[in-house]
Automatic annotation (TrEMBL), chain A:
GO terms for molecular function: ATP binding; ATP hydrolysis activity; transmembrane transporter activity. The keyword Transport applies. It holds the Pfam family ABC_tran. SUPFAM superfamilies: MOP-like, P-loop containing nucleoside triphosphate hydrolases. It comes from Pleomorphomonas diazotrophica. GO terms for cellular component: ATP-binding cassette (ABC) transporter complex. InterPro entries: AAA+_ATPase (IPR003593), ABC_SmlMolc_Importer (IPR050093), ABC_transporter-like_ATP-bd (IPR003439), ABC_transporter-like_CS (IPR017871), Mo/tungstate-bd_C_term_dom (IPR008995), NA-bd_OB-fold (IPR012340), P-loop_NTPase (IPR027417), Transp-assoc_OB_typ2 (IPR013611). Gene3D superfamilies: 2.40.50.100, Nucleic acid-binding proteins, P-loop containing nucleotide triphosphate hydrolases. One of its GO terms (biological process) is quaternary ammonium group transport. Residues 4-234 form the ABC transporter domain. The keyword Nucleotide-binding applies. This is ABC transporter ATP-binding protein. Keywords: ATP-binding, Nucleotide-binding, Transport.
From TrEMBL, chain B:
Its main location: membrane. It comes from Pleomorphomonas diazotrophica. Keywords: Cell membrane, Membrane, Transmembrane, Transmembrane helix, Transport. It is found in: Cell membrane. This is Spermidine/putrescine ABC transporter permease. Belongs to the binding-protein-dependent transport system permease family. CysTW subfamily. GO terms for biological process: transmembrane transport. Residues 68-273 form the ABC transmembrane type-1 domain. It is a multi-pass membrane protein. One of its GO terms (cellular component) is plasma membrane. The chain crosses the membrane at residues 14-32, 39-58, 70-93, 100-124, 209-233, 253-274. The keyword Mitochondrion does not apply. It holds the Pfam family BPD_transp_1.
Length: 357, 285
């Protein structure tokens, strides 16, 4: 139904470059999350797709039709805003019916479609209320319904649940995913929460400083980050500054096999480290043990004081100050200007060419 | 414990009263007392007793009534014109940004820093007889236009210009409560500029518009400088009329009567103003 193709998109506000060199294809029926820290250009990208901004460079096509210069109302998109976008002087019904009335649909059809979409977002019977008589979560459901009722091909959501508490946020994001799948529409979801992105996306676009860092499926981005930024941003990660020499990387007193030379960053996930017998060059001092119930995280320090987080089995018990050995099972080395190199302890060979399955 | 709480509450009330005491005292001394004096002075005469003759005179005197009507008419038209001119500027400033918007804002607020007397003389130099507009028309061999100087249109043009900044600021503060996202959402669903204004923006700034109108009316009804310098000699607006009755005609009784009547009108508009503000407070943004 609806494919979005961005080609060579750049957007500058005066001297500020909000987005640069964006090439991206969002496939029909896909839910793509734009993930990145605040100010990375997520909203700008979404607003470009929705027609609220025009790119400084590049083109945007929807289903092969160039829409770069079209205003929002002439694109098959509908946007859900972060908050305060409901019209407080209209009832819930009035808010949702607005887009349909503009399309001059018959009254009976408007009423029926509003009822149906209210049902879809779980707000049947709330039509006569004013937005101020709803909770924050209900208000965002109305905003969602208002966008869905006009049957857009592409749903755009700009951190729609950012102002809600965690539980509600989790429930609503799952509902959005559910509705998106049921209606089979394309969706672009902006978030700065990696959990949110990992939980609902078909693919994630990681943005930083207005540039695309990586595009991929959630598991892929987690397992095979392409840049040090992505490695540090998605999921828990130990990022250590080290030096490559003699087939080894030395970082904070830790030494691991690695090719190359010069400065590099060593990335190790806490779950890729196991506790083991003490051994020279593989020792840490326990600072604190954090018991999450399902697993245990050991906050420890390397010989030079660098922090290292280790995730282990919930049965493990260690004491603060205790010296324990570690075994690193997987690690990734990021050297400036080179592709990341991934290693694992059982083979100790670069497996950067092995695609994530 | 409860006693302490009570005295705390009582203490809060006391300091609250003290806080409002000064402005209230000033209000009584500078406003209510002179008003009361004026009212009493126009209806009670030591020696002869009560008489409403001066009011009867005002409301039967054709000239006084014409002045009152002119004042009401100029006030109404000027208030509406101010809002009509300031609204597009306010909308532009609220929903656009950048260097052009900054320039527009500076230009629109400029009149605030120009004293009324200067406005009047600038007006005369530009629009008055043999002013710049006339000179240009003559140079181009075009027929002269009737100058608005010394007609009711004179003070209206001057007053609109003079009151534009404050009107703009009042409207802008009202528009501040309309979020950009709510306007974007309406655009997204297909609302054009007209629908956007009438269905989304206007309903949410209604009370601000009433406040703005009432605020303008209050100031305009007793405006003096611009009507005095730019307006016709007859009929005249209440401000110049009062001044002339008082000093030129040396008739303090009728001047005071005119003042009381003017005050009564302003008080009525003041009531609308206060009510609109109270309503605006209650209404969710
Ligand atoms: N209308 C605008 N005018 C000027 N700068 C803007 C505007 N919108 C966004 N920016 C700038 O563009 C960059 C990206 O902003 P944004 O897309 O809102 O980031 P995000 O949504 O990821 O937090 C920021 O540096 C921001 O200051
Ligand atoms: Mg944003």
């Amino acid at each position: 139904m609806a494919q979005v193709r961005l080609s060579g998109i750049a957007k500058a506000f005066g001297k500020v470059t909000a987005l640069d060199a964006m090439d991206l294809v969002i496939e029909d029926g896909e839910l793509v999350c734009l993930l990145g820290p605040s100010g990375s250009g997520k909203s700008t990208l979404l607003r470009l797709i929705g027609g609220f901004e025009t790119p400084s460079e590049g083109t945007i096509a929807i289903d092969g039709v160039d829409v770069t210069r079209l205003p929002p109302e002439r694109r098959p998109t509908a946007m859900v805003f972060q908050s305060h976008a409901l019209w407080s002087h209209m009832t819930v019904h009035g808010n949702i019916a607005f887009g349909l009335k503009l399309r001059r649909l018959p009254r009976a059809e408007i009423r029926e479609r509003v009822e149906r979409v209210l049902d879809l977002v779980g707000l049947s019977g709330y039509g006569a209320r004013l937005p101020s008589q709803l909770s924050g979560g209900q208000q965002q459901r109305v905003a969602l319904a208002r966008s869905l009722v006009i049957e857009p091909k592409i749903l755009l959501l700009d951190e729609p649940f950012a102002s809600l508490d965690q539980h509600l946020r989790e429930r609503l994001r799952d509902e959005v995913r559910d509705i998106q799948q049921r209606l089979g529409i394309t969706a672009v979801f902006v978030t700065h929460g990696q959990d949110e992105a990992l939980a609902i996306s078909d693919r994630i676009v990681v943005l930083a400083d207005g540039r695309m860092q990586q595009v991929g499926r959630p598991g892929e981005i987690y397992a095979e980050p392409k840049t040090a930024f992505v490695a540090g941003f998605i999921g828990a990660m130990n990022m250590l500054d080290g030096t490559l020499a003699d087939g080894e990387i030395a970082a904070g007193g830790l030494k691991l096999p690695a090719e190359g030379s010069g400065p590099a960053r060593l990335a190790i996930r806490p779950e890729d480290i196991a506790l083991s017998e003490p051994e020279e060059g593989r020792m840490v001092t326990v600072r604190r043990m954090i018991d999450f119930g399902s697993h245990v995280v050991v906050d420890s320090t390397l010989a030079d004081g660098t922090h290292l987080r280790v995730q282990t089995d919930k049965a493990v018990r260690v004491e603060a100050g205790e010296r324990v050995g570690i075994r690193v099972e997987r690690w990734t080395v990021f050297a400036e200007g080179e592709e990341p190199r991934r290693y694992r302890s059982d083979t100790v060979r670069s497996f950067r060419d092995v695609r994530y399955a | 414990m409860i006693a302490a709480l009570r005295s705390g509450v009582a203490g809060g009330r006391l300091s609250g009263l003290l806080l409002v005491a000064l402005p209230v005292a000033l209000l009584i001394w500078l406003v209510l007392w002179p008003v009361l004096q004026a009212i009493v002075g126009t209806v009670y005469f030591p020696g002869t007793g009560f008489s409403t003759a001066s009011y009867a005179y005002f409301f039967t005197d054709a000239y006084s009534l014409r002045n009152l009507w002119l004042t009401l008419w100029v006030t109404a038209l000027t208030s509406v014109l101010r809002v009509a001119v300031a609204m597009p500027i306010a909308l532009y400033l609220r929903f656009r940004s950048g260097p052009v918007a900054a320039l527009v804002q500076a230009l629109a607020l400029f009149p605030m820093f120009v004293p009324s007397v200067l406005v009047a003389y600038a007006f005369i130099r530009v629009l008055g007889p043999n002013g710049i507009v006339d000179t240009i028309l003559v140079a181009l061999h075009l027929p002269k236009l009737a100058s608005p100087y010394l007609t009711p249109a004179g003070p209206i043009i001057g007053l609109v210009w003079d009151g534009l900044p404050l009107t703009l600021l009042l409207l802008l503060s009202g528009l501040g409560r309309v979020s950009i996202a709510s306007v974007d959402a309406a655009r997204d669903l297909g609302a054009g500029s007209f629908t956007l204004f009438t269905r989304i923006i206007l309903p949410r700034i209604q009370s601000s518009i009433i406040v703005t109108l009432a605020f303008n009316v209050l100031g305009l009804f007793s405006a003096f400088t611009l009507p005095f310098l730019l307006g016709p000699a007859s009929p005249e607006m209440m401000g110049p009329y009062m001044q002339r009755t008082f000093s030129d005609n040396a008739d303090p009784l009728n001047a005071t009567t005119q003042a009381v009547i003017t005050f009564a009108f302003c008080a009525a508009f003041g009531l609308i103003y206060v009510r609109a503000i109270a309503k605006g407070r209650k209404a969710p943004a």
